[in-house]
Structures are given as C-alpha cells and as structure tokens.
Amino acid sequence: NSQLYLPCNVKLMTFLADRLLQYQKRFEELHQQTGAVHTETKQFYSLFNNLSDTKTYLEKHLIRLNSINENFVKAIVTLRTGSCSYSSLNSWLREPSRVRSGLRRSERIQGQQG
Question: Where are the alpha helices (DSSP H) in the chain?
Fold first, then answer.
C-alpha cells in the first residue's frame, strides 16, 4: 500500500525542489537589485551634500563680493562728491589689510546671523 504512494511523493518532492530553486533564484535577483538601488541612493545623497556645500560656499563668496562692490561704489561716490580726495581713495585701494579686516568682520557678522 505504501508503494503506491511512493511515485506521487517523488513527483511532489521534485516539484517542490524545483519551486524552491525558482524562489531562491528570484530572491537572489531581488537582493542584487536592492543592492544596486542602495548604492545609487548613496551616490545621490553624496551628490546632494556636495552640491549643498558648494551652494553655501558660493553664497558666502557672493556676500563678500557684494560687500566689496558696495564699499567701492561708496568710495567712488565720495570721491565724485568731493568729500574725499583722490589720494585718500588711492590709499584705501592700496591698503589690503584694511580690506581684509573688513571682510573678516563681515564674515563674522554673517557667521553670527547664519
């Protein structure tokens, strides 16, 4: 009586083994896809952080350049109105240490505000 069921059990075991192999292959494919998506996501986060740092860097330099431009325009206006001599403007332009200290001051102010 048990010999009658033996061929059915072998067929069932073979069927189940094949099915398990299919599932294993599919899980391996999904694992590889998940790894690829994870790597791509890490690259996007890295790119975003890099671009964000670059944006911050450029904004700070833009603030400095605007400050230099404002002070230069004020100096030119002062020179044209006659309340400042050409020699005093010339000395201002030749004194980079004063310009640097002004930039440092504005940098500290921006750091306190930001």
Answer: 2-81, 86-94, 96-113
CA-to-CA separations, 25 to 3, 13, 38, 42, in angstroms, rounded: 34, 18, 20, 26
Local confidence pLDDT in tens for the 114 residues of the chain: 445 556 678 888 889 999 999 999 999 999 999 999 999 999 999 999 999 999 999 999 999 998 888 888 887 777 777 666 666 666 766 677 766 777 788 778 777 775
Closest CA to 84 of 97, 71, 67: 71
- Tell me the C-alpha distance between 44 and 29, whole Å: 23
Check: CB of residue 110 under 8 Å from CB of residue 63.
yes
